[in-house]
Amino acid sequence: xxxxxxxxxxxxxxxxxxxxxxxxxxxxxxxxxxxxxxxxxxxxxxxxxxxxxxxxxxxxxxxxxxxxxxxxxxxxxxxxxxxxxxxxxxxxxxxxxxxxxxxxxxxxxxxxxxxxxxxxxxxxxxxxxxxxxxxxxxxxxxxxxxxxxxxxxxxxxxxxxxxx
Length: 164
Known about the structure:
single chain; 164 residues; alpha+beta; Nuclear Transport Factor 2, Chain: A; globular
């Protein structure tokens, strides 16, 4: 008898926790949607349109950025950047040197994490257009991007370059 009562109580608690506070669920959903929008701004405004202005609004001052080790930043000489100042300088160097276009394929968010999948078309120094799949993982803290991790398909990039 105790076990049946325990199951019923546990079920009621579980049901209650799922329906007790719809406004809390809406708030979490809005936060995730805001985070996804910041990730989209990061790529479409900052990288594609070369507009650095949104960085102060969307990136935390102590944010970190980690990139593919095969492409170290000219700012630090490594694949790691710390703070908005280093990130801005890296983005400025990258966007001014790269002839890049691209489009967002998918954005998925849950909790304080957003994953942005995109395809970037870059021109090599020889002028060859190369399509490269990229994934960027964003972590958010206090409504701003706090961690950025870039992963891109360097093998796919190198294979395209070798064929042309």
